[in-house]
Amino acid sequence: MHDTIEKLGNSQIQHGPDNNRIYLMKLDPADMPGIIGQLNELAAEKGYTKIFAKVPGPSASAFVREGYCREGMIPHFYSGKTTATFLGKFIDPMREATRQRNKIENIIILAQSKNGTQPKPLPEGYTMRPAVEADAEELAAVYKQVFESYPFPIHDPDYLIKTMRSHVCYFVAEKDGKIAAAASGEMDKENRNAEMTDFATLPEHLGNGLAVHLLKFMEPEMQKRGIATLYTIARAISPGMNITFSKCGYTFGGTLINNTQISGSIESMNLWHKSF
Questions:
Q1: Do 117 and 34 fall within a single domain?
Q2: Quick one: three-class SS letters along 159-204?
Q3: Bridge partners, 276 (sequence order)
Q4: Angle between helices 136-146 and 157-166 (to 10 degrees)
Q5: How far apart, in whole angstroms, are the C-alpha atoms of residue 122 and residue 119?
Q6: Cα distances (angstroms) measured from residue 150 to each of 20, 57, 138, 153
């Protein structure tokens, strides 16, 4: 059962047992400051252990006064101008504890050391292109094979088609006419930002640097669509994706502790961002 996306006042939230948290995705300033109490009430009612909020920088201090900590920031997030602040409130102190802090810090240092380095050339036989609706079945099968579980139903071809028609551009790397790797750009057209996400490479194609090449292919496609800031929320204990974004010139923006359910467990996530 995936978490629910719904309105709280005029703001958009996602919540449910899958991530065991509330995520304030889009804050309408008209809901301030009352929404902070409403989030507390919903978390208490459902027994969630974390509230996670992405808000424009000027609104952040009101959340900090109510027990939130700043976990990360992305400059130029809203329409290429206003900073986004990522905040966490840990209702259960156990959720804030992680034995992996040293490992996470070492991965960030390793990734930053690769910043802007040239990737290996794309191996012969691979091509890249934007995905189309006819790819949905094969794309869903790739995601099903790579991810045991995921915060959104990307295993479902109907979901992929629905999102393609609204706000998500999917991209594929192919070999011999079959999808070898995939990724997506989830666009917030109103605020001119996009999350570069859903990276998946089939096991037999690992080691070819396909994620880096897909990311480099996706960037101009996002620019064409008027996007000013790109970002990702990458698994903090996965060196590969952190290195991928750093290699492509992204800047580290913070760590979201025990934030997202992927492959059956709650994991910490790293922010990386780039503006044009």
A1: no
A2: HHHHHHHHCEEEEEEEECCEEEEEEEEEEECCCCEEEEEEEEECHH
A3: none
A4: 120
A5: 8
A6: 14, 29, 17, 7
Spatial CA neighbour of 180 closest among 124, 126, 120, 122: 126
CA distance linking residue 202 with residue 109, whole number of Å: 27
Residues sharing a CB contact under 8 Å with residue 58, sequence separation 6 or more, in sequence order = 82
Q: Which residues of 201-227 are buried (b: 16+ CB within 10 A; e: fewer)?
A: bbeebeebbbbbbbbbbbbeebeeeeb
Q: Please state the length of the chain.
A: 276
Residue at 107 is within a domain: no
Considering the entire predicted model, what is its pTM?
Answer: 0.93
Alpha carbon distance 206, 209 (integer Å): 7
Look at residues 96, 130, 159 and tell me which one is the last residue of a structural domain: 96
CATH of the domain at 123: 3.40.630.30
Per-residue pLDDT of the chain (276 residues; tens, 9 = 90+): 678 999 999 999 999 998 999 999 999 999 999 999 999 999 999 999 999 999 999 999 999 999 999 999 999 999 999 999 999 999 999 999 888 999 999 999 999 999 988 888 999 999 999 999 999 999 999 999 998 777 678 999 999 999 999 999 999 999 999 999 999 999 999 999 999 999 999 999 999 999 999 999 999 999 999 999 999 999 999 999 999 999 999 999 999 999 998 877 899 999 999 998
Residue with tokens 């999350």: 195
Residues 198 and 268 in one domain: yes
